[in-house]
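Students often ask why we bother predicting the structure of a whole assembly rather than each chain alone. The short answer is interfaces. A chain on its own may look different once its partners are present, and contacts between molecules only exist in the joint model. In this exercise we take two input lines together and write out one structure for the complete complex. Read the inputs first and try to guess which parts will touch.
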Amino acid sequence: MQTKDRYIQQFDETQEMALTTKNLHIYYGDFEAISEADLQIPRFKITALIGASGSGKSTFLRSLNRMNDNVADVKGEIWYRDLNLNSKEIDVYAMRRQIGMVFQRPNPFPKSIYENITFALERHGITDKKELAERVETSLKQAALWEEVKDKLNQSALALSGGQAQRLCIARAIALQPDILLLDEPASALDPISTAQLEETLVNLKQHYTIVIVTHNLPQAARISDYTAHFSQGKVIEFNNTKETFTDPKVKLTNDYISGDFG
Amino acid sequence: MNAKRYDKLATGLLYTIAGIVVLILLLLLGFIIIRGLPQLSWSFLTTPSRAFTAGGGIGIQLFNSIYLLILTMLISMPIALGASIYLNEYAKPGKVTSIIRTMIEILSSLPSVVVGLFGFLLFVVQFGLSFSILSGALALTVFNLPLLTRSIEDALKSISNDQRNGGLALGISKWETVTKIILPAAVPSIVSGLILSAGRVFGEAAALIYTAGQSAPALNFANWNPFDIDSPLNPMRPAETLAVHIWKINSEGIMPDSSAVSAGAAAVLIIVVLIFNLLARWIGRLLFKRLTAGS
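Now the answer. The structure tokens for the assembled complex follow.
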């Protein structure tokens, strides 16, 4: 039944939320990139953000941990626990330790694999050698990279393949033990095999982390996510559990988008 | 058929032009080095110059050039580093930033003799520093600053924004992202730029004639107390550099072997500048390997 213009699934009160956005408006100069995106992102689930290029999904994602400061003008509320992240009092550096982000292009630092992970930990005050080594091992294991790099931790991270580098970036982010991981098309620069490994990694990670992922790869969204939000022209027009979104979309535009019918 | 012929013609033309550039450089280098090389000897490089008799060297001038270079770099490096970090990492696009950029460009296009005369009025006369290494180093800083700032800024600009985002997304402050991620990644090209600008500073004459002076008083290389007048380290003594020396003996040199001394000094100057250029490439590459391979 595709009769609605907009369908947003409501959660009952028992469902724990990781993030909730209210009255969010995001502007680039005069252009309003996001005009209606009230979303509830459930904890320990994977939420996929899909939509055509320019629909605002990446802008939305980057606003969640304030990576859009100085780039776009973000109005409205982003609730994390009992904090409104989009307020002046928030210490963005401390907040980003809880809400990490992985980008489209793998961006390992020009340091060794080991230092790529310990760098941020040391900046956040963890200097105990033993704990650092433990965190490196745990995070690399969680990111499914440990077996491939355990014998060359002191080598340059720049020598890793694209897929390995991207998993290192994930390891680097989860080494901080954040609550939430935001991923901006993390597999778009990877080959199919690396993509499959990355997806497996993400599915395993959701036991401990809430994951929000922007993707253009619809089968990927269908494979790994629990919930899917469809963005169109700055609005969330459909939000539902992934199975229903892909098998029984409530909004015609969503049906058109997932079936590749844009005419 | 026609397109192919045009292409061949154009390629040939471009090769010729590139060849002419290379040829000019080789002729110049060859001429200076072939003329100067026979004059070079250990004593030529280490003994003081003589004003009236043959057999003088360039020892003091060579030392002055190196000392002046080091002082200039010590003064200009922190300023250029700060300015370029501000411009590339912190400055928001707008009127103030564009005014700063325009000013730096104007400063870099000032003829060095103008910088020298300005240095004479400001440092030598107004500040009372007289003809001294310090006056020279300050004038050279004015001359060097815009170029160095530009080259460090380019080095920072060449580091991908992904790196900045990567640091910020891990909750690392902007300052630490810049100093601990961006700056180390840029070190190889910063060092290359530094050494290249050192080559320019080393060969500069016009800015020094009226600031560091045209005389090279005898130095006592056993006295390293910077407050003594005959100490090589004293920054308040007048100090003729190698480039100024070449200019001077060619315009008013009265020693009988002035052309030989000038040829030898020119060869030394060219060789040092060449070494700077090669070092810049080599050290840049080495540092890049070292820094990106982890410790």
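Check your guess against this: The CA atoms of residues 136 and 176 of chain B lie 35 Å apart.
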